[in-house]
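Write out structure tokens for acetyl-CoA C-acyltransferase.
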Amino acid sequence: EALATLRPAFDPVSGTVTAGTSSALSDGAAAMLVMSESRAHELGLKPRARVRSMAVVGCDPSIMGYGPVPASKLALKKAGLSVSDIGVFEMNEAFAAQILPCIKDLGLMEQIDEKINLNGGAIALGHPLGCSGARISTTLLNLMERKDVQFGLATMCIGLGQGIATVFERV
């Protein structure tokens, strides 16, 4: 009930984006070790996953946050996979109104509770801008191991009509 009383942030008359449906800018830190498999073995490290493919795509900047859709489609094509091959998704969610069209247009509406942002996304956890990519990727790798799935997809919406998607494969 309290969420319904929050004022819209951008359009005071018919807007739906409020503080309650937006990710909070937050502090955070994340780190990843990214290296070749042979280098990991030289260092005595056990690789967790490999980057199977990735894509960075531009789209109409007036459609804020939609970039993950074409980026995901391209990354999946480059990996020789389809959406149905992906066991878990970790998708950046700047706003609820931003992620929902992405989920819908990737054909994932029926799988939200089973496959997408299973620990909560940026709306629940916060949006530490400088480390969101590492945070999302690390969360995805942890989920892939916990759920014992081979493939995961991480996405980021980026301002001015950009999107990035990375397909990870467990090793």
